[in-house]
Amino acid sequence: MRGARGGAVDRRRAGRRQGLVRLVLESDADLVLNALVGSAGLGPTVATLGEGIDLALANKESLVVGGELVMALAHLGHPDMGVPISYALHHPERVDVPVKRLDLSEVGALTFEPVDHDAFPCLGLARAAAIAGGTAPCVLNAANEIAVHAFLRGALGFLGIADVIERTLDALPAGPVRAFASLYEADREARAHAGELVRTYPDRLLH
Length: 207
What we know:
It is built from nine helices and two strands, in the order H-E-H-E-H-H-H-H-H-H-H. With 207 residues, the protein is mainly α. The chain has two domains: 12-103, no CATH class; 121-199, Orthogonal Bundle (Rna Polymerase Sigma Factor, Chain: A). It has a two-stranded parallel sheet. The two termini are 29 Å apart.
């Protein structure tokens, strides 16, 4: 029964993903604003770029999962998505955005300290996945989404999140990304593996 339910979930997820891509392809839009949550945003991002449509991207997972096949962005300022969205919507023009400007003299200093990897193990896993490249960031993102959602519904302890991610990365070594289909397959495999780890986790409710 578990296999049947898992297959049904995969089919529903694939149907939603195809529907979003079809919406982009059939919209005849000049610009697409992608503010979806999670790796579901990758398909519309790929479709938009493939059609040569301008993309206003507010979906970080497209960058994490897509890696070098998409692009890299950087911005130093107050954490407000209104700024990058405005840049994307009005490019190449700039318009006033009601966001407080970053005043470095007011901040005084930017302080950097060594990372405590024992306290923040997921950061080390993310760095390792970025260095490995290929499908590793995609696997990390998928396992993270499964583990975090399990924690939020009380099915996994907080400390289990990093463990599930690490074990999923160990089980699915990084492979080359020759097409976006490789990312979809890596995402599917990682979700299935992480989901099974959550289901059989020894101390599921240990927080």
